[in-house]
């Protein structure tokens, strides 16, 4: 007869204690984060080490040093805890979809122009859903998404997203913007060739809108020359209004009145030029159906808003 013994495994609480200790490097601070006493946390870490058969931290009177094994385990523990949280979210969603919490990331060239349009509708349709927002540039935003700190992200495409699931919400056309006294002001349509020698305004490195602008301009074999690099779309618009240079501005921002009162002249481009706005999430997420519903709702709200 064979007797199968259950393996002794770390508990969720022990993994939570380890992650808190690895993040804070301090027993007292880790205990505060976990809402327990320091002695309880210390006992939990000792129990974890007993289960593992090896140390996860070196202790002294002045500091805590996480061992290389402890640091590696803490990263894996974060993933395990995220999955456990997601299981609870899925269980909640099975009882009542689009309720509870959702962590949504958004990039700066979308957030101010889309969120005010859609949030009233989202609150009306999903009153039991609490959305926590984080605005950040695309690369760090997607890193947070892939790391589990965010559930879903609203981004601009094209952009390299590896194996993330993407649901395209809408097309966002680029418009040519210049000072009202510029020689191209007032034109209904501008060819890319006409932009060849214009001082182009760009957002600084890290903004995907910068790459999208360069991609549009390079279709005419134009070598882009950045006259000025702005940290925000609003700053770039003000510089265009001052006659420092010209720019390509997304219609989303124009529809949100970013150029109102500036005297800027807007024209369409002679070739199709647009970015896509899409909702991205991890392919392993158990909340895919909720995210698809969110994408469908955003698609509807951006049209009717």
Report on this structure.
It is a single chain. The chain has 305 residues and is α/β, with parallel strands linked by helices. The chain folds into two domains: 76 residues, Winged helix-like DNA-binding domain superfamily/Winged helix DNA-binding domain (Arc Repressor Mutant, subunit A, Orthogonal Bundle), CATH 1.10.10; 207 residues, D-Maltodextrin-Binding Protein, domain 2. 43% of the residues lie in helices and 22% in strands. The protein has ten helices and twelve strands. Strands 3, 4, 5, 6, 7, 10, 11 and 12 form an eight-stranded mixed β-sheet that branches. α5 links the parallel β3 and β4.
Overall CATH class of the largest domain: Alpha Beta
Q: Please estimate the helix content.
A: 40-55%
| Average pLDDT rating | 88
Q: Architecture of the largest domain in CATH?
A: 3-Layer(aba) Sandwich
CATH topology of the largest domain: D-Maltodextrin-Binding Protein, domain 2
Summarize this, please?
The chain is an alpha/beta fold and 305 residues long. Helix content is 43%, strand content 22%.
Sequence-ordered SSE layout with sheet pairings:
Elements: H1 12-24, H2 27-34, H3 38-52, E1 57-59, E2 64-66, H4 68-95, E3 100-106, H5 111-125, E4 129-135, H6 138-147, E5 152-157, E6 165-178, E7 189-190, E8 200-203, H7 208-218, E9 226-230, H8 233-241, E10 247-250, H9 251-255, E11 265-269, E12 274-281, H10 288-304
Parallel strand pairs: 3-4, 3-5, 7-11, 8-9
Antiparallel strand pairs: 1-2, 5-12, 6-10, 6-11, 6-12
Helix pairs in contact: 1-2, 1-3, 1-4, 2-3, 5-10
List keywords for this structure.
Arc Repressor Mutant, subunit A, D-Maltodextrin-Binding Protein, domain 2, 305 residues
């Amino acid at each position: 007869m064979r007797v199968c013994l259950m393996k002794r495994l770390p508990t969720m609480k022990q993994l939570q204690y380890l992650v808190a200790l690895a993040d804070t490097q301090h027993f007292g601070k880790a205990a505060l984060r976990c809402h327990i006493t320091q002695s309880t946390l210390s006992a939990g870490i000792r129990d974890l080490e007993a289960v593992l058969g090896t140390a996860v931290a070196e202790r002294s009177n002045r500091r805590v040093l996480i061992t290389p094994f402890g640091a590696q385990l803490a990263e894996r523990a974060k993933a395990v805890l995220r999955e456990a949280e997601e299981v609870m979210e899925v269980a909640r969603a099975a009882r009542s979809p689009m309720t509870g919490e959702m962590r949504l990331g958004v990039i700066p060239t979308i957030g101010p122009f889309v969120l005010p349009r859609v949030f009233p509708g989202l609150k009306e349709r999903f009153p039991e859903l609490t959305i926590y927002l984080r605005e950040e540039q695309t690369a760090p935003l997607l890193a947070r998404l892939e790391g589990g700190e965010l559930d879903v992200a609203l981004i601009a495409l094209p952009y390299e997203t590896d194996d993330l699931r993407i649901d395209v919400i809408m097309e966002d056309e680029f418009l040519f913007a210049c000072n009202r006294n510029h020689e191209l002001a007032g034109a209904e349509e501008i060819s890319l060739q006409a932009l060849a020698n214009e001082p182009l305004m760009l957002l600084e490195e890290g903004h995907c809108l910068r790459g999208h602008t360069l991609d549009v301009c390079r279709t005419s074999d134009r070598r882009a020359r950045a006259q000025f690099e702005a940290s925000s779309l609003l700053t770039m618009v003000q510089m265009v209004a001052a006659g420092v240079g010209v720019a390509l501005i997304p219609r989303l921002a124009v529809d949100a009145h970013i150029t109102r009162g500036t005297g800027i002249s807007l024209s369409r481009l002679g070739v199709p030029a647009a970015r896509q706005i899409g909702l991205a999430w991890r392919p392993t997420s158990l909340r895919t159906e909720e995210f698809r519903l969110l994408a469908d709702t955003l698609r509807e709200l951006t049209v009717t808003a």
